[in-house]
């Protein structure tokens, strides 16, 4: 059994979503630079229609909207958690005020 050594700053889902968001952005940036460098170097005899290029061109078109959805989901989860914490704190403060004479 592992003891909780610090304050809980987020759930496992929030950490996973944060890493997925970061990974999607990194993959998009790498694909963007690959496209730029590929166009500077000039296309292969087959052009950009063969090999890995269709997947490289498609990656930012899929990864950026997915990253946006992951970011929005993460923002909603964090806002809900902070609202719950604020409500719990308000309940504790109200209970302390009731006990005072």
Write the layout of secondary structure elements.
Layout (H helix, E strand, L loop, with lengths): L11 H30 L11 H47 L2
Helix pairs in contact: 1-2
Give the CA-CA distance, first to last residue: 42 Å
Q: Helical residue percent?
A: over 70%
In N-to-C order, the SSE pattern is: HH
Number of structurally distinct domains: 1
Question: How would the global form be characterised?
Answer: rod-shaped
Runs with pLDDT <50, length 5+? none
The number of helices is 2
Query: What is the arithmetic mean of pLDDT?
Result: 86
Walk me through the structure.
The chain has 101 residues and is mainly alpha-helical. The protein has one domain (12-99). The protein has two helices and no strands. Helix 1 (12-41) packs antiparallel against helix 2 (53-99). The longest helix is centred in the C-terminal third of the chain and has 47 residues, at 53-99. The two termini are 42 Å apart.
Notable characteristics:
rod-shaped, mainly alpha, 2 helices, single chain, 101 residues
In short:
This protein has 101 residues and is mainly alpha-helical. It has two helices and no strands. The chain has one domain (12-99).
